[in-house]
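Here's what a typical entry looks like (Cohesin subunit SA):
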Amino acid sequence: MGVRILMTSYCFLYREADTQLSSDTDLEEPDVKNAKLGKGKVSPWREGQVWGSEGSWPWSGECHCQCRLVMVVFSDLSDTWVFFQSVVDDWIESYKNDRDIALLDLINFFIQCSGCKGAVSAEMFRHMQNSEIIRKMTEEFDEDSGDYPLTMAGPLWKKFKSSFCEFIGVLVRQCQYSIIYDEYMMDTVISLLTGLSDSQVRAFRHTSTLAAMKLMTALVNVALNLSINMDNTQRQYEAERNKVMAKRANDRLELLLQKRKELQENQDEIENMMNAIFKGVFVHRYRDAIAEIRAICIEEIGVWMKMYSDAFLNDSYLKYVGWTMHDKQGEVRLKCLTALQGLYYNRELNTRLELFTSRFKDRIVSMTLDKEYDVAVQAIKLLTLVLHSSDEVLTAEDCESVYHLVYSAHRPVAVAAGEFLYKKLFSHRGPEEEGMPRRGRQSLNGNLIKTTVFFFLESELHEHGAYLVDSLWECASELLKDWESTISLLLDEPMPGEEALTDRQETALIEVMLCAVRQACECHPPVGRGTGKRVLTAKEKKTQLDDRTRITEIFAVALPLLLAKYSVDAEKVTNLLQLPQFFDLEIYTTGRLEKHLESLLRQIREVVEKHTETDVLEACSMTYHALCNEEFTIFNRVDIARSQLLDELVDKFNRLLEDFLQEGEEPDEDDAYQVLSTLKRITAFHNAHDLSKWDLFTSNYKLLNTGLQNGDMPEQIVIHAMQCTHYVILWNLAKVSEGSSNKAFTILCDALMIFSHQMVSSGREQLEPLIYTPDSSLQAELLNFILDHVFIDQDDDNNSTDGQQDDEASKIEALHKRRNLLAAYCKLIIYNVVEMNTGADIFKQYMRYYNDYGDIIKETMSKTRQIDKIQCAKTLILSLQQLFNEMLSDLGCNFDRSSSSFCGIKELARRFSLTFGLDQLKTREAIAMLHKDGIEFAFKEPSPQGEGNPPLNLAFLDILSEFSSKLLRQDKKTVHLYLERFMTFQMALQREDCWLPLISYRNSLQAGGDDDTMSVMSGYSSRGSSIRSKKAKPASTGKRKLPEEESSSCSTDAQVWMNREQNVQTPVMMPSPHLTSTVLRDPKKMRPEESYMGVYQHHHQTPMDYNTQVTWMLAQRQQAEARQQQERANMQYAKMRSHMQHAIRRGSGLMEDDEEPIVEDVMMSSEDRLEDLNEGMDFDTMDIDLPPSKNRRERSELKPDYFDPSSIMDDSVLNVSMF
């Protein structure tokens, strides 16, 4: 009875999630709802009807449970336990009235919670065994879907699982005093769950195992309560019996004896139930094939051992956990470790775990290196608990296997290992350490810090100090932030009898100290550990500010002293000089620490004068950079000190350079060393500081020029001189104003061209180290610059001279500047300096900016096709895909295919198709790859409207069909087969308008299917005709057919009509072959393609009668005569076409047609060809914002166009020479 309420709430919860509520009355109590509906009927539940005879199930779209929609949706309940208690109380009342009906409800509860659509009837319950009932329910299962409630995702189903488990616990808890001992209710339920857990159906097995394990947990709780009551009763009995005879109450003794006997009987009964569940379910299911089922068993046995350790914490049960630690699934191994953590956490249980620990300790240690990071973390935590319980269990080798994990790149593993290390090395304090001071060299922290340094050195991973600090930060941050003790260890003299730190230990201590300062100020893990910076909480931000203030106050005083002591040690000084980067510079003023600042600046100056190591000098430079902050009042003081130091360095360099470059004298090694050391210092400072006012370029130019002339300049001097010159250029580029960005872009493109892989050609392999390849970020910035500054409207251009936007000359000048920018970038694409696919953003502008940049873009496409045909085709289709996505974002998924945007993309695809020319063999692989990428894009995204609707990008097939004419016949079949891989059977039957792109594309792949040889021969015909046209000889007498490329200009209606005509089969005349020579020619003399197609056609022809043969021969003769007439007309057309092309190009001078040169022997009328030629020229495609009287040639007379496709590396474009 109460179970129905639970499942009613469950069903209703699902329906609410699917927004399928019929009305608001479903939320009301049955009586209220019936009153509103005018019905005075009693709930069928209270009439005792069987639950599960009608209705539907939420996961199958049907419902088989008769249930009233009452109570509250339990996702909204604040106290589900109270709700279930009320439900179970109602069920108990029903059980007392009729236990068969109530048990039948409970049985159906378990059956239908498994996802079964069937229900157990009263007849089945009375006359059928459990095995027969389970077999019957198996037949009712929905085999089409593998989903059932416990495996379905989402918060609603997680709520169902928790409610399902909680309900079982409440059921046993409410029945623990009477019903569970009636030898009927529990026997029936345990028998049912045992049978279901052995089922072949995963849903039954999973659900029943979960129910049985939760039922066992509830029984363990009952057994624990019985044990406690028995102990209490026994103590009361012993206390009463020990009284003197005069005060002893015999009646009370008898009552206590009777109570103890009843409790013992109940406990025996509970033990029998638990044994039945354990042996019938657990023993079989803990090694089930499904990992989720195994995990349930291990999780629950851990609960039993922790809850009732007296009964379950022994080797008979622990062995199952130990065995399962070798499970193949990380989920199950994780449950084993978490179960054991609950046991080892209680120190009182350690004695019972000794045998288990000795047996499975090695396995636990090996699991610290588990491939699943979550398992490794829990294994380390378990070993930490083992270490906490006893120091003698883990050997030194066991501990060392965990120690090295503090350097793991996975932060949770490292943090767990850091906690283990801290427990092992730092948590033990002897009685002699109790009276030590809190801070300083002799403090407890001082000893612990030295221990940390010793561990750091012994690990032999010195470069990972930041990893060690990060691992210890959560458990030992107070130790690591004890700056006073650290400084005392470095500056104070050791006490008598105390061993001083070695030089190596001091170096390690300084590195650990720097890492701790960085960790406190930055509050994020080191590089390589962690996904990025996280958002700090208010408390963490306050701690960060407090630590930074404390660091500044302490190290502002101590840092000059440390630098003075270790000024000659390069490694120590390099680390110490990084500390000011983390200072709060305002403290120097507010804390009256100016004298310490002066001392720091003096020490830095001395370090610069003493050292020539690059790391030390760069650290000094970065320290000056950190201190020279204009926001703080100390800026002037630091700036003066920096300027004085640089003045001395530059003056010294110029003086040494003058002596070094004197004519007639050969420089000695000492002079070269002085020049090199000074140049190193200047170069290191120039990296972080702008030294333009010292004019270092002139000095370095003299140095390099002399070296080039004499050839005897030391290599290191040349390297640092070039590096210093490099910094000079970078600082000057940083000063370039926004108005000079075009010039800077051109210089950058030219520099990339000069230092590209082209520079090693012609035997200049020695220049290979100078090759520079731009990374992806730089390529993206270059492309964005082109898109922002080149592809703009005339009115948006802000680069015209004197701001005269309306002046004609300024517009033309601005256009030429933009053309030069585009040409500079296209050179990078052509010479493979940048990725070819970046050209997609350029190619998609072909139609829109055809008048301005059409020749540049077209020449770029031609050059890229010569480099890599396949990659060029992929770039072209990528540009169309980008335009299609932009259109979807603007117009939405329900756009009109007749819109100007879609038609523009389709027209661009047609232009792209024409650029492939007529030789299909040359472009065969490229065209095939283009269709492959297009098909994948069309079916990539499903429909946002759900199943049954076309994919989101299906309309792209309409654009892709523009390239179908470029496919060979056999390739069309291959592409069609590839298309069918993405199609379903329902798609092939669709005829709605939204599916027209798919229909049209399929038709384009099936067009020309009866042509057996022409698609293969077209390439040979094109090459042969080109040769013949050069020799000015008439065409051969061989019959030719109109190529498929020329037929692409026909209208869609004509194509549909032709397809329909080809598909018509009449009983009078068989379809004639296109080429008579194919049938009559000797197969031995045919090309492979011709012989194959001829044989294919011969085997598939049916015998013809006499009349059909005569009709076929007459048709062949008529076709031969028509071909001869077309051939003669073609010769006349060739001459006319040649004159027309010269006339058109002389007259327009605007652009070339999109097609490659047309072969002269193509059969078609002159008039049709002229019309197609005019269409290919497309004179009025795009109008530039200039008077129509001026075409490109006239405009170019005003200013020469620097773009020359034939010599794209010309010096007039680069403005520099290669060498």
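The chain is about 65% helix and 0% strand.

More examples are in the samples folder.
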